[in-house]
Amino acid sequence: MRRFRTDHPGRYMTKAMAALLLIIALCGTAAADKYAGAFMDDGGGARALALGGAFTAVSDDPSAAYWNPAGLSLTTERSLLLMHAERFGGLVDRDYVSYVQPVGWSLFGGEESGFGISLIRLGVDDIPLTSHLEDALDVNGDGEVDDDELLGLFEYRDDIEWVSDSEYGLFVSYAELMGSWRLGGSLKLISQNVGIYSSFGIGMDIGLLRQGIWRNLDVGLKLQDITTTYLSWDTGKHEIIAPAVIPGLAYRVDLPQWDATVLIATSFETRFENRGNLADQYASGSMSTNMHSGMEVGVGGKVFVRGGFDSGWGSEDVTAGAGFMLSRLVVDYAYAGDTLGIQESTHRVSLTVGF
Question: What is this structure's pTM?
Answer without folding.
Answer: 0.79
